[in-house]
Automatic annotation (TrEMBL):
Signal peptide: 1-26
Phylogenetic lineage: Bacteria, Pseudomonadati, Pseudomonadota, Betaproteobacteria, Burkholderiales
Keyword Signal tagged: yes
Keyword tags: Signal
Protein name, per record: Uncharacterized protein
Organism: Massilia mucilaginosa
Database matches in SUPFAM superfamilies: Calcium-dependent phosphotriesterase, Quinoprotein alcohol dehydrogenase-like
Amino acid sequence: MRIPSQRAGRLIAALLATLACGQAAAAVPLPAARRVLDPPLAGAAMTVVDGRLWVASRGGGLIGFERGARSMRFDLGQGLPSAVVQELASLPDGRLAAGTQAGLVLLDPRNGASEAIAPPGMEGHGMAADLVLASSRGSSLLFQLTAREPDGAEGQAGTSLWHWDGARVQAWNPGLGGALVATAGTVERADGCFHVAGMQVDGAAQQPWYARQCGAVQRTWRLAEGVPAATVGIAALARAPDGRSSALVMVTQPSADPASRRHVVMTLGDDGRLAPHCSQASFREPVTGLVHAGSELIVARAGAGLHALGCGEPRALSDDARLGNATALIRDARLGLLVATDAAVWQLGADGAPLAMTPAPGREIPIDALPMEVKAGGALVLLSSPIDGPLELARTPGGWRVVRQWRAGIDLPSAVYGPAAYAGPDQVLAVQLSQGLLRLRQGQAQAVPLEPGALPLDVAVTPGGIWIAAGSTPFGGAAGLHYLPNEGGARFVALPDRQAQPSGRLLAWPDGRIWAGTRIGIIEADPKGAARRVSADRVEALFRNSARNIVGAVGASVQRWDGERMLPVLFAIEPAPARALGHPVDLVIDDAGRWVILFSGGQLVLLDAQLRHVATLDERSGIPPSSRRLLYVPGSNEVLIGSAREGLFSLSWP
C-alpha cells in the first residue's frame, strides 16, 4: 500500500488502463453508506425555526420534527461531516449553525445547502465545534474549536474562540490573555448581545471569567471575589428577564474524587459582582439546562428532571419519570418550555404533564454497537455494544430491526462488553473484556468457567468447541488461547512470549483450527494444542470469505494468504485521500473477491478482485469518522459499518 506522487500516479493509472484492454471504463458512481436504524435521540441542543423543532443528536445527526413526526434530516453524507452534533443555534434568516465533532457547519433547511465555517488555514482539520451562539441581529456567530485527541476523543488543549460576521472568521479575544475555555453562553434575544463564561487555565491554576459583547462593544470580567472554593468550570448561564443580571451554575470539585463535585447556583450583576443565588442551591447532579421563567429559574439536571428555583427549596415541575434524564432545555416564545431527554423531546404543560414533540422511542440501536457475526444466510446479525451489551438484528422487507437484546445492568452484569459470537441455535457468547465470558439465552445469562486469571479478549466457535483469546495479567498470567472442547477437558495454548499479546481478533477454520492475530503476527493453534507462527507482522484483524476461501489480514500492513504464507497486498491510492488514512484496522472480502479495508482515520479503501484501488470513501459518502468494525453480509453485497459514536451504517457495493 502506498500513496503515489502525482507523476507516479499518472503512470500507474495509465498502466491500469492498459491492463483493461485499453478501453476507458465508464465512470461508476461511488457507493454511499446509509444509516441502519436510529440511535437513541440523546438531544444535545434544540431550536425552533418556522414552527419546526430541530434537535441536535449526539450520533444521529440533526433532525427536524413537525407535529411530532420527523420531517427533515442532516446527517453524514447529507450536509454534516460528523453525525455527532453537540451544539445548535439558529440565525434570524432561518439557517442553522451546527457544532459537530468535525467542525462548524451552516445549514439551510430551505434548500438543504451546507457550508463549513472555519478560520483561514484551518479548513478540513476536523476540530470539534462547541458553544455555538447565534445573534438575533443579522448574521453573527460565536463558537469554540477544540482539538481532538488522536483516537478521536475531545481534549481541552488547542481550544480557541472565533467570531463569524457573516462573511469572514476572526479570532474572538475577550482581552484576558490565552488558555481560555468557554463552557457556557447565551444570547439576549432583545438586543442580540453575546454573554459567555468559562475558565482560564494556567497550569494548575483555574480562574472563571465572564464576557459580554454587544455589537462592537465588549466588556470582560475576571471573576475572583465571591467565587466558590475549588471552582473548576461553569456549567450553565441564563440572563434575567430584566437584563440586569445573569445566573451562573459554577462547578466545584474540592477533591480528586468526582463524587465531591457540586453545581452551585450563583448570581452575577452587570457590574461583575458575584454572589450566591438567593436559594443557596447546589446540586450533585450535572446541570444540563438553565432558563428564566419570570422570577424563577428552571433547572434541568441529568437524572433528576426539572425543577423551578426561586428563593426557597427547588420545586419539581413534573413527576413524570420520562423527564428524569434531561439533556437540554429551551424556552420558545410559542411552544413554551421544551426539554430533551435521552429518548425524546417533550413540551411541558402548565400542569407538568409532558407532551411528546418527537416520535415515541421504539427499539433503538445503541450508538456504539459493533457488528460481530452473520447467521441464517444473512437474515440475522449479531452486534455488541461496549456499554449496553449484545443485541441481534433481523432483516425484514422494510430493513433491519432489533429482535433480541441483552442490556448491561438489567439483563447482564454491568461491564465493558467486547466481541460476541453465535454458539448454537439459541445461544450467544458475550465477552466481558478482561473479566469473563457469558453464555446467553433469551432471558438467561450464565458465566462460562475459565482458567483462573484468564482475561478474555475475543471468542470464536468451531465444530469441536470454543476458542478464547486471553491477554496476560499483571500478576504473571500468560497470554494465550484457551480451548473448551464440547466434550470437556479444557486446554491452554501459550503464545511464544509476552510480546505476542492477542490483538483481540480470532479466525476459526472449519476443521477446528484457529488463527489469532497478535503483535508478532498470526499464531495458528489446533484442538490438540499444537501451535505455529504463520506470519511475522502485527495483525489487528483477520477475515476469510468462505465462499471463495480468500483470507486477508490487516495491521502493520495489508496481507493475503496464498495457501502457504501471508503476502503483502500492494496497491496505489490515486487520487490521494483528502486527509490522512491512518493505519488499517479491519477488512472484509465479498463474494466477488473485492476487498473493503477500514483505516483508523474513518475511511474505507475499496479494491477490486484484482486488488486494484477503486475508491477511497470518507464522511462525504456517509462513512462514520469513528468507524471501528466491518461485517460482510453474504449474498447481499452489503457491508455493515459499526462506529464508536455515530451509529451503525450499511454500504452496498453493486
